Amino acid sequence: MEIKHEHRVFYVGENANEALAKMTYSVAGESSIIADHTELSDELRGQGVGQKLLEHLVEFAHENNDTIIPLFPFVKAEMYKGPEKYKDVRR
């Protein structure tokens, strides 16, 4: 499954507007991003796609020396379930 990234959206599908799954973020200052929304189609639920989107967001944060503010409940829950895995980027 290919995860694409454009215009502050990580997504699965042909484009961000018609994505089967997506995670959006906003920029918060010079070194933080806010994970503000996650959306999955029914056909992708239960396949770990949300976690894969989060992994791409975390990789993006690492590459840009950003921290992530986990505003969206799914992202917040995932980031606090695995504190060691995310502690260097979680804010």
Automatic annotation (TrEMBL):
GO molecular function, one term: acyltransferase activity, transferring groups other than amino-acyl groups
Gene3D superfamilies, A to Z: 3.40.630.30
Domain N-acetyltransferase residues, every copy: 1-91, 2-91
Pfam families: Acetyltransf_CG
Record's protein name: Uncharacterized protein
Organism: Aliicoccus persicus
